[in-house]
């Protein structure tokens, strides 16, 4: 099965190389409206030749990807294809894995986030992350959970904190549900509420890019649709990259979709195009459920 | 394979697979579980009974002392077996002072080491350090005592004690001693309980799911902030447990303390003075104790030691309960 896949992919790659490389030139194939849109749209995050290894095993192979500002970019692909690895590179979270190695570069508005003078802590304050499982800090109240990031930034003013709690919880569409129980432990909320609390927590700091690694996979359908609505709204102000196993979800929330396979970026294009008329056979196979 | 199929065919209901020697004897479903529960329950009960019996034995044995001296035993600091004067205060004092000194030294050190081991140390350093810690735990206490007498005490006398006198001074550090003192006992005990604290707290820290560390990091927390936020805070109950286990070992430690505390029954704030401890007075004087009251007095000290350990443990559990009761479900 895997051999078959690899062969297919190899064949595909040969075809790809003869036609057009993925990445920079992607704009050429998108429909007219998209071209016009991306002409005015600023590139917010840019992955350049990203490779990653865990020990000797290579998990990412030369990934190139431009993520537009104030767009939702979805990353799809079968399990183990390197989606999490890629999204974790975007805020240098891969560095928390001792065996991880990295090559290539990632630019945030034309500045490398791997600048040796730059502390990853600073990068992560601009590029936030929400994980698969909701992770409110169990010993903190809802209120404290939201302001954790601000506290880390040294904000102590009670008024500022109060305001931040309300505005972040509103942004995360959670305010109405928890405004009377801000002092309850964050872990006492439902899974969906916890996940929105984590989003609020990420939004409380001056955030520009929000990374979400399968944020809905532990949630029920109603909570999922709430989070999806939320993503729609957040798009007004933030650049969002979301990993998802749910293709309907990718289709619903994203403007761009990236399809990955075996650590390689196979196709990256406007979501509509990827789901209706993919240019790569592998993408088509995956989307139509022929594998993965 | 065949047997499995037969089972499935047999009326659709899968029978429990029993070892052949139990066939026909115990066909009842869940018999193994019941047996297991019974056996483990019995052992748990046995421990309770043993503790209770120890307590009762000490209680009965200390009867003559209680009759002769009464409650005064608990408040008197005089210990003169020849004149039949017995007071437990110097021993309780010595045990508590040396144990708390040990905690004061070993808690930050032990937690620091285990945080380093779980959170910061490069992978190839973790195993060797953990190995050394295990070795520390395996050294018999009499060896610690010998080392304390011949190596630590002279070092304390020559270098550490004078510094303490200069830096902190009275009333806790008055004049330099011969090196056998509450302070030296505390230091030896701290080394002895260090492995306990390290091993337990390391397990507690390792039990913290990695996603919490990553969540903190993703919010822009530095290493130290990550540790505070996602490791130390939720580990509080476990850390208290680790420290209490260390304290338990310190309270009951006999040989090493006896060899370095100086064995002089007195109550003084000066930590550089020689003192005594409950465990060491029992060990030292039990064989030479003449007379019913003397023996009973030693038994009563044993009883006190047991009660103190119990009370401190209960206090620790209450502390954990109070600090964690509004954590909610985690
Ligand atoms: N911490 C790690 N240590 C070693 N190998 C890892 C580690 N994390 C990921 N890998 C490897 O890297 C490859 C990509 O993993 P990754 O987690 O990025 O996949 P994924 O696309 O997110 O899959 P899923 O959909 O299951 O989350 C896998 O082969 C995996 O075994
Ligand atoms: Mg993943």
Helical amount of chain B: over 70%
Biggest β-sheet: strands ordered side by side in the sheet of chain A: 6-7-8-3-9-10
What proportion strand of chain A?
15-25%
Distance between the termini of chain A: 11 Å
What share of the residues of chain A lie within helices? 40-55%
Radius of gyration of chain A: 19 Å
Number of helices, where a helix is a run of at least 4 consecutive DSSP H or I residues of chain A: 13
Strand tally of chain B, please? 2
Order of helices and strands of chain B: HHHHEEHHHHHHHHHH
CATH class of the largest domain in chain B: Mainly Alpha
Give the SSE layout.
The complex is a heterodimer of chains A (292) and B (330).
Chain A: H1 2-19, H2 26-29, H3 32-40, E1 43-54, E2 57-68, E3 72-76, H4 83-89, E4 100-108, E5 111-112, H5 120-126, E6 127-130, H6 142-152, H7 158-171, H8 175-178, H9 191-203, E7 209-213, H10 221-234, E8 239-243, H11 247-253, E9 256-261, E10 264-270, H12 271-276, H13 281-287
Parallel strand pairs in A: 3-8, 3-9, 6-7, 7-8
Antiparallel strand pairs in A: 1-2, 1-4, 4-5, 9-10
Helix pairs in contact in A: 6-7, 6-9, 7-9, 9-10
Chain B: H1 2-9, H2 31-61, H3 63-69, H4 72-75, E1 79-80, E2 85-86, H5 89-120, H6 123-138, H7 141-167, H8 182-206, H9 210-218, H10 223-232, H11 236-252, H12 255-261, H13 278-285, H14 292-324
Antiparallel strand pairs in B: 1-2
Helix pairs in contact in B: 2-14, 3-14, 5-8, 5-11, 6-8, 7-8, 7-12, 8-11, 8-12, 9-10, 11-14, 13-14
The complex binds adenosine-5'-triphosphate and magnesium ion.
Magnesium ion binds at residues 83-84, 213 of chain A.
Q: Would you mind describing this structure in some detail?
A:
Helices cover 41% and strands 23% of the residues of chain A. By secondary structure, chain A is of the alpha/beta class. A six-stranded mixed beta sheet of chain A has the order 6-7-8-3-9-10, with helices on both faces. In chain A, strands 2-1-4-5 form a four-stranded antiparallel beta sheet, covered by helices on one side. By secondary structure, chain B is mainly α. Chain B folds into two domains: 7-61; 65-326, Orthogonal Bundle (MetI-like fold), CATH 1.10.3720. Chain B has helices at residues 2-9, 31-61, 63-69, 72-75, 89-120, 123-138, 141-167, 182-206, 210-218, 223-232, 236-252, 255-261, 278-285, 292-324; strands at residues 79-80, 85-86. Chain B has a two-stranded antiparallel ribbon with strand order 1-2. In chain B, helix 5 (89-120) packs parallel to helix 8 and helix 11 (236-252) runs antiparallel to helix 14 (292-324). In chain B, 35% of the residues are buried. The interface between A and B is medium-sized, with 30 and 26 residues. Bound molecules: adenosine-5'-triphosphate and magnesium ion. Magnesium ion binds next to helix 4 of chain A. Magnesium ion is lined by residues 83-84, 213 of chain A.
